[in-house]
Amino acid sequence: MSDWDVLVVGGGAAGLFCAAVAGQRGLRVAVLEHQERVGNKVLISGGGRCNFTNIGATASQYLTSGSPHFVKSALARYTPRDFLTLVERHGIAWHEKKLGQLFCDLSSRQIVDLLLAECRTGNVQIFTSTAPERVDWDSMTGKYSVPTRLGLHTAPALVVATGGLSFPKLGATPWAYRVAEQFGLRLVPPRPGLVPLTWKPPELSAFGALSGLSVDAIAMAEPDAPRFRENLLFTHRGLSGPAILQVSSYWQPGKSIRINLLPESDVQTAIHVAKNSKREVKSLLRHLLPERLALIFAADFRDARPLAQWPQRDLDTLKRRLEAWEIHPAGDEGYPKAEVTLGGIDTSELSSKTMESRKQPGLYFIGESVDVTGWLGGYNFQWAWSSAHAAANSI
Fold first, then answer.
1. Which residue of 176, 203, 261, 394 is surrounded by the most CB atoms within 10 Å?
2. Structural domain containing residue 21
3. d(CA 85, CA 318)
4. What is the mean pLDDT of the chain?
5. What are 74-96's pLDDT values in tens digits?
6. 278: pLDDT confidence band, cut at 50, 70 and 90?
7. What's the number of CA atoms in the CB half-sphere (13 Å) around residue 249?
8. 91, exposed or middle or buried, with CB in 10 Å at 0-12, 13-18, 19+?
9. Which of 15-29, 212-226, 272-286 has the highest mean pLDDT?
């Protein structure tokens, strides 16, 4: 049997950082990771260069949480600037790509190496290929016991950092949810987030041939949801790209999304000019949109008359199609393609200052296991660092 001050289950971004901070406070810390190596999701992030934070991260980018105010304390006490200072202290070159997104110049491996180096400084013991079989709680000793095939580990503090269900090929499991349920904590039903959306059959037959086409667009889910202006990508199954991934976290099955395909254009004026010059709809659309998309849109209208002969209601329909194209997705690509998992441990069950369960002493949940999801662009890594830091400094 191995006895520790802190047991961290999960060797991802949040788990390793929490272990490192706690270890550097003088606590005896062990990390249990069921995979052969730690940091798998970090390694593939940001196209292999790890979008490790967003310098503009605030609570306003985490509005999908059941409690939008929950993140404020942790984010305020460990900021993007704090993690950037750590990155620079390790000599990692970085760059800002766009919209405050910070990436490694070279490789995501540098962030994993940073986390491992910080763990070594804190004398953290990391056990890989070590899956926890269950969790037992002894109210007499105030300790958790976690048996594994390699032996029993005990500690008065248990930090669950096993993440959500996205990227199952990298070892994602519902372990955090099972532990929460074991100790009576409520869950917000999980679902894929930051995920490509799929077409219904009629749209698939019309737009599937556009696979690979990317356009600048503004996308939004509900009228009161955030609007995202980034690239939209047509795929062989539906829509992807940053604009769609962002919107997917706000979209609900059965609802629509709206897309402005011409965020830089004055569509009303363009239609007026085309009407006065007696152009046809195909000519106008080929002027405004990429060729392949223009031809599909033109075919939908099936009116070869000059725009000057169109009734006003049809001109209004054309304008709406370009500025507020309404799409009813069939669904999404699911956890294998999802960047994150929405839902998780209900934030009302946790202290926003410490990440500790309000019901169960010494039990902490951090990172993606919690019902906190940020926008695409480094925000979810920042939540990993901030929530981990909050827990590690309260144990």
1. 176
2. 2-192+341-392
3. 51
4. 96
5. 999 999 999 999 999 999 999 99
6. confident
7. 28
8. exposed
9. 15-29
Tell whether 379 and 241 lie within a shared domain: no
Annotate the chain with three-state secondary structure.
CEECCEEEECCCHHHHHHHHHHHHCCCCEEEECCCCCCCHHHHHHHHHCCEEEECCCCHHHCCCCCCCCCCHHHHHHCCHHHHHHHHHHCCCCEEECCCCEEEECCCCHHHHHHHHHHHHHCCCEEECCCCCCCCEEECCCCEEEEEECCEEEEECEEEECCCCCCCHHHCCCCHHHHHHHHCCCCEEEEEEECCCEECCHHHHHHHHHHCCCEEEEEEECCCCCCCEEEEEEECCCEEECHHHHHHHCCCCCCCCEEEECCCCCCHHHHHHHHHHCCCCHHHHHHHHCCHHHHHHHHHHHCCCCCHHHCCHHHHHHHHHHHHCEEECCCEECCHHHCCEEEEEECHHHECCCCCEECCCCCEEECHHHECCCCCCCCHHHHHHHHHHHHHHCCC
Q: Give the dihedral of Cα atoms 210, 215, 220, 223; nearest 10 deg.
A: -100
* Residue 269 and residue 365 share a domain: no
Condensed to tens digits (0 to 9), the pLDDT of residues 33-57 reads 999 999 999 999 999 999 999 999 9
Query: Do 200 and 176 lie in a common domain?
Result: no
Cα–Cα distance for residue pair 164/13, rounded to 1 Å: 13
Q: Which residue has the tokens 């600037």?
A: 81
The CA distances from residue 390 to 11, 168, 309, 338, in Å, are: 17, 27, 65, 26
Q: Is the same domain home to 201 and 159?
A: no
pTM: 0.95
The CA distance from 248 to 254, in Å, is 12
- Please give the tally of structural domains in the chain: 2
pLDDT (tens digit per residue) in 342-360:
999 999 999 999 999 999 9
The residues, any chain, with a CB within 8 Å of residue 104's CB and separated by 6 or more, are 46, 49, 50, 52, 92, 93, 94, 110, 111
**What's residue 333's pLDDT?**
97
